[in-house]
Write a structure and sequence with these properties.
about 375 residues; alpha/beta; Rossmann fold; 2 domains; six-stranded parallel beta sheet; five-stranded parallel beta sheet; Ado_hCys_hydrolase_NAD-bd; one-carbon metabolism; Adenosylhomocyst_ase-like_sf; NAD; Adenosylhomocysteinase
Length: about 375
């Protein structure tokens, strides 16, 4: 018997009540399908994501689909979990295991984030990864005993990382710094999905933005968008940019990145240091108190880290990728999401929100 059948689900409804139905069309559609079809009946699922309030809606959908769900969260992001989310799970009888050493290797599916369980557990069917940092790990691991699907390896993920995380960063930074970003110098390490979104929203708010990246195509794209780009090979230029920055932001998706190449002294003149990645990208040379939100992604210091409008389609994809794992024709090993599957969800999102898909595709064109 699944946990959802042991309760009256009143506490779960508290989470759903936080969102306007117009912001969660995918989740409402999934709720109807999962209740009627029970597509994941009998599957044992380990759910590992940041445990914010919105995630409880995502978790309940899996229970509605008939799954037996155990919940944990990314260790680095545990301090950012919302007490109400943990309270709801506890009251609804959903197992929540914080200590990963107490999680047994007995799952059909792992819905993973940051590849926390890559190489540690062996799911019978496979894993679905949510982040770029985790995708990089699973690509190297490329397990041959189970399947891995990366939701991050998609155009769709740009809704969250470009629009959602970009706007979430601006909200989080403004809350912690309590200063306007207009006319201030920002330096961003990394100009991938997340870095592009952060740079876009900062520039729209009147900030001066410089980005550092190893990819010359990305740097050329930044220049087209009116953003100064510096190659990672140009160390002296980077050091000069650091000294002239009001704030430095990490968006590399690499654990401990800054400490590998720079010292804390290099950043002594910078007023604000921030991270927007799912890992501690500053590393051991920096105390947590030196970084906004104690090294956790700065947007996770707000009640809604990512606006639900940009997040729920990713929640839908993360859950529904279980359908891909159930496809017997899919071979073991690493896979991005199928292009037609990716485009269908993105197209549906545009229809739901009355947005031209050509405009979205153009904005996400270099991601």
């Amino acid at each position: 018997m699944t946990a959802i059948l042991k309760s009256n689900t009143l506490r779960f409804q508290e989470a759903w009540d936080h969102y306007n139905p117009g912001a969660i069309p995918f989740l409402l559609r999934d709720r109807e399908r999962f209740l009627n079809e029970k597509p994941y009946r009998g599957l044992k699922i380990l759910h590992n994501t940041p445990l914010s309030l919105d995630a409880t809606c995502k978790i309940q959908l899996l229970l509605m689909a008939g799954a037996d769900v155990t919940v944990t969260c990314v260790p680095f992001l545990r301090p950012q979990t919302q007490p109400l989310a943990e309270e709801i799970l506890y009251n609804e009888g959903v197992p929540l295991i914080v200590d990963h050493n107490n999680i047994s290797d007995d799952f059909d599916v792992i819905l993973d984030c940051s590849a926390v369980f890559a190489g540690r557990l062996t799911p019978r069917l496979g894993a679905v990864e949510l982040t770029q940092s985790g995708t990089n790990i699973y690509k190297v691991l490329n397990p041959q005993s189970y399947k891995v699907i990366s939701v991050d390896d998609s155009r769709l993920k740009g809704l969250e990382t470009f629009y959602g995380t970009g706007s979430g960063f601006l909200n989080g930074f403004s809350q912690f710094a309590n200063e306007s970003v207009a006319s201030q110098e920002f330096l961003i390490f990394g100009y991938g999905k997340v870095g592009q979104g952060v740079a876009h929203f900062l520039k729209e708010s009147g900030a001066y933005v410089t980005v550092v990246d190893v990819d010359f195509d990305r740097l050329a794209y930044a220049q087209k968008r009116g953003i100064r780009g510096i190659s990672f090979e140009a160390r002296e230029k980077i050091l000069d940019a650091i000294q002239n920055s009001f704030a430095v932001v990490t968006a590399t998706a690499i654990l401990g990145f800054i400490s590998k190449y720079f010292t804390a002294n290099d950043f002594r003149c910078v007023k604000y240091l921030a991270n927007i990645g799912a890992e501690d990208e500053w590393g051991d040379q920096f105390e947590s108190a030196q970084i906004l939100n104690h090294k956790s992604p700065v947007n996770f210091g707000t009640p809604e880290p990512t606006p639900m409008k940009y997040l729920e389609a990713i929640f839908h994809a993360h859950n529904s990728a279980i359908d891909l794992l159930l496809d017997t024709e899919l071979k073991n090993g690493y896979h991005g999401v199928p292009q037609d599957w990716d485009l269908k969800i993105l197209s549906d999102w545009c229809q739901f929100h009355n947005v031209e898909i050509e405009d979205v595709m153009k904005e996400l064109g270099n991601i």
